[in-house]
Amino acid sequence: MRQPAGRSPRRSGGERKPREERWAELIEVATQIFYEKGYDGASLQDIADRLGMLKGSLYYYIQSKEDLLFDVISTVHKDGLAVVRARSEIEGDPLQRLENVIRGHVEHTCRHLVPTAVFLHELSSLPIDRREEILGSEHAYQGVFRDLVHEGQAAGQVRPDLDPRLAALSILGSTNWVYRWFRPGGEFSPEQIGGEMAEMAIRGIATDEALRSRAS
Amino acid sequence: MRQPAGRSPRRSGGERKPREERWAELIEVATQIFYEKGYDGASLQDIADRLGMLKGSLYYYIQSKEDLLFDVISTVHKDGLAVVRARSEIEGDPLQRLENVIRGHVEHTCRHLVPTAVFLHELSSLPIDRREEILGSEHAYQGVFRDLVHEGQAAGQVRPDLDPRLAALSILGSTNWVYRWFRPGGEFSPEQIGGEMAEMAIRGIATDEALRSRAS
Lengths: 216, 216
Known about the structure:
homodimer
């Protein structure tokens, strides 16, 4: 269950369960409204209206609209990062682990389309200190992909002339872009997209030798 | 030189050169301000202020802020589409032409970062009829990539199990994403990014046989 991640949200003790449920509902509605109207276009009044609450009651949970955006973005970022980190640590050679990471990232994106879209569109609406609080000092997400490419080079599985950062950005581009065109119940399933994207990415960076031993 | 593309912009005869120069300057400033403040956050007053004009004088060129957004987006889309279409028609086998298309697309994106960002962020701010007027009924841009993948399959150069639309979306994702991280004068040049992305994409979709004959 989600916990408030805003800057010192106002909470008191007692009635723990209902409060947390109410918070989860608030975040869900805020995510949807930021998605529909954009962060600048969305107001606390819109959010209160959809929840059937008075706007003043929102201040029981947050200090500002920015607290809600911070929570939406930090939650989807933290959850996605946990997925790719966990998969990068499963046993296997670097290309097997990268394949697994790509599948996980695509499936997570497809299953959390709306908060992912808010993350990718509205990150720049947060002040720089809160952005850095989420992303970390050195792009943790990108680092998972870059490190696996680098490990693959050390293991002779990835073309040595390739820049690991450029490879990571290329893979993140194709997989992140999914949030713009994927539709649940559409032509392709998350697993199918993840599988095909992983296959294209792995073949795109692998040495001829790694591809041969992979096929056999 | 750019021509007004807004919905019946108000223009009269005479003094052709200065008017067109003024229009180009107006579009350049509008692009920059939409980029900095977002379309919703930008006002005609902001644009007039930066041009050193009275806001009322803008109505000599346009009927609304939307006319400016329409022009910014339709121009960068039309120019980019012309680049990839021209390259897709240069002589060569399908993979050679696709490689050329990818390089052209990446270089165009890197050289027109600001209008590309406005296009990708603000397209949904246009009403649906004007969006369709720009994109065409069937995603012309995506079609160039998809058709080349399909031709490559017919020629035995591209893996037959790959869905051409999924391949096109993967390539467009990695290459479009460049607008989010490329910085002029940074670590990578547009040509280097275009070359590496093309190499990864081609290897990602090619048959083993096509790769062998390409290397030799």
